[in-house]
Structures are given as structure tokens and as C-alpha cells.
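Onboarding guide, step 5: your first structure request.
Type a short instruction followed by the sequence, for example:

Predict the 3D structure of this protein.
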Amino acid sequence: MDWSPLLSTLTGAAIGIVATLIADRNRWKREDIKEALRLRLDVYTQYTTTVKALGETLRALARREHSSDDERAFALREAFRDSGMGVASERMWLIAPHAVVKASDSVFHCLRRICDGYVDGTAVGSPEDRARWEARGTAAAKMRKLMREDLGVGPLTERHSALLDDYSDPAAQ
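The system replies with C-alpha cells like these:
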């Protein structure tokens, strides 16, 4: 009995099975990479949206008349607490690469300084306020740059955050 046809068939079948397994494994890896990218995009979008909304809320609350300094402080701290910034920050810490986490944490602390400044009575548009917003804008630009690099998209050619002169113009906000 000649075993060559049977061995050829078995070898061909083994090669086919191995090739199929390798192709499936490669497809699963590509899908995992795509899913991780989608997850980071979701986390980054949530974080940047929360940063923007919180900044607008803090500025609006600081401009509003309050019956007392304590009421103003409570409103500002409550807005920070209720903004979702804590959840967005924790998601960032769990998902993002170290450089993005570090940059997002810098933005978080800039917003905390803005809030604390308003709690302490800093007026909207004052030199101290403008310096804090400029620091937040610089930190946010760096954060977005790192996020875009991580997502594999090109850099932005223009600044996303408002310029300092725009803070005193209600139409620019």
C-alpha cells in the first residue's frame, strides 16, 4: 500500500487548518486594535467634552450674582463635583497611555485652579483669571495633540481654545 497520497492529503489538510487559524488570529488582533482605538476615542471625547462644558459652567457661575461668597463657593464646587470630571478622569487613567494621562491631569488641575480662583473671589477677565485660562488652553492644546497622535490622526494647524482677548467678548463665547 502506498502511503504517499494519504500523507499528502493529511499534510495539505494540516497546512490548510494552520493557515486558517493564523488568518483568524490576525483578524482577531486587527479587530482588538480597532476596538481599543474606538474605546480611546470615546474616552478622549468624553474627557474633552467634559473639560469644555465644565469651563463654560465655571465661567457662567463666576459671572452670576450670588447672595453671598459662601453661596458662590458652594455653587462653583458643586458644579465641579457634578460635571462628570471625576468619572471622565478615572476613565482616562484606566485607558490612556501615560503621556495622555499626564496631559489630561494637567488640564484637570488647571480647571481646579480656575474654580478655586473663582471661589476665592477672582473676577472673570481679571489678569489672574486670564493667566489661569491661558494655562488651561496651553495644557488642553498639548493634551489634544497627544490624543490625536495616539489615535493616529494628524496634528491640528490652529488653536482650539479661545484666545485671551476672546474671554472679555461675550459674543466670542
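Each response can be followed by summary notes, for example: DSSP finds five helices and no strands in the chain.
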